[in-house]
Amino acid sequence: MPENKPPTQKDFPTEKPVDTEAAVDESSKGKKLPQRKDLVETSLNSNFSPLIDIAVKEIESRRNELLKEIEDLTKRKFDLEQKTKATFTGQSDSIARHVKGFQDYLTGALQNLAQSAEQLDLVVPPVVVQPSPLDKIKSNQEKDIPEQHPAIADTFKPDKDLIGECLGQFLGRPDFYAAPWKLRRSLDQKDIELLEDWFFNMGGRGAQPSRGSRAKNVLISAGLISILGELYGERFQTLVLASQPERLGEWRRGLQDALGLDREDFGPNSGIVLFERANGVLERADRLEERGDVPLILIDAAEQSIEIPLLQFPLWLAFAAEPEELYEDEDLI
Q1: Which helix (H) or strand (E) holds 122?
Q2: Are 163 and 212 a contacting pair, CB within 8 Å?
Q3: Which terminus of the chain, N or C, has less C-beta within 10 A?
Q4: Does domain 157-332 have CATH number 3.40.50?
Q5: Are 137 and 180 in contact (CB under 8 A)?
């Protein structure tokens, strides 16, 4: 049996001694942290203060430089405006602005005037003019005097001999080496009779029956151009009217062959001009008469209608085709 011994000091658990200084230090750490943070911030501010001052000075210096540049640019702008006003371009711009303003003002004034005029009731009173007794006496005397107009058929009477000589030459052998604008082909008796009727009975204005084909009509027209060239020289121009390009092509080739012409002889500034529309013929003939030249208008047989204004000119020849010829021409085209 074991003996019961009294408990010793080893049998009891030992307790560690409490370090009072460490506890004091731990408790004091939490209280001293804010003071250290303030010290750090104060030291940082003291370190960056010179840098901030330098940056502020540089910004102020840059600002002063920009203000000076702005002032210089303002002065340059003012000088340029003064120079522009003194130059011709500047004065022109100023005048243009003034004119534009006056134009706008005038436009508005005219519009207001037109509106005011539309609102007015304008009634024109009838004017009764009674003839004077002296006018009646003068008109009676003028009625008693018969008006004398030269006959149209007498237009070429002074040149009858020259025209007859040319027509006689056309009946002979053709001269294939004749000068340009001279007929290089011959005509038969019916062609000569047609031209004589046109010259001496119609006075150079009228329609003649077609000779059966466009080629024969072109040949007669070439003889006509050759005679008028002897009479008027370079003072006349031939205007051909045909409403289809193919027909105009036949006219050009036929006249070119019969008169010994080149392509340069066909054009607005040449002796022969080709037209598809009557309006162009009218305008060209009017210009020729204004400058003292004589237009000769040749109208193709396929033209079934003639513009009335064309008949006012002194020289024109229209070919009148038979229905059979018109049908054949349409079939060929």
Answers
A1: none
A2: no
A3: N
A4: yes
A5: no
